[in-house]
Specification:
2 domains, 2 strands, elongated, alpha+beta, membrane, two-stranded antiparallel sheet
Length: 78
């Protein structure tokens, strides 16, 4: 495993009193491009919308089931 390198870019805006500093971690090109391609594929377009909808539905059902089970044991008659 290679150590991650970081780069710092500093630019001062001429027309404003604000300064801009950005830092970016640089890893190997193959890892970054592969991860970026997967994220781009899963988070954009029709597939991205479908993934977000399925994630929301799954989160709803997990929350619903946890609430149901918790409510059952909290309000269980003795």
């Amino acid at each position: 495993m290679q150590p991650h390198e970081s780069s710092v870019h500093y630019s001062k805006w001429d027309d404003s009193s604000r300064d801009e500093v950005s830092m970016a971690a640089v890893s190997s090109t193959e890892e970054a491009s592969c991860g970026r391609r997967v994220a781009q594929k899963l988070c954009s377009g029709k597939l991205g919308i479908a993934m977000k909808v399925l994630g929301g539905v799954a989160l709803f059902w997990v929350t619903f089931i946890l609430g149901y089970v918790t409510g059952y044991y909290v309000h269980k008659c003795k």
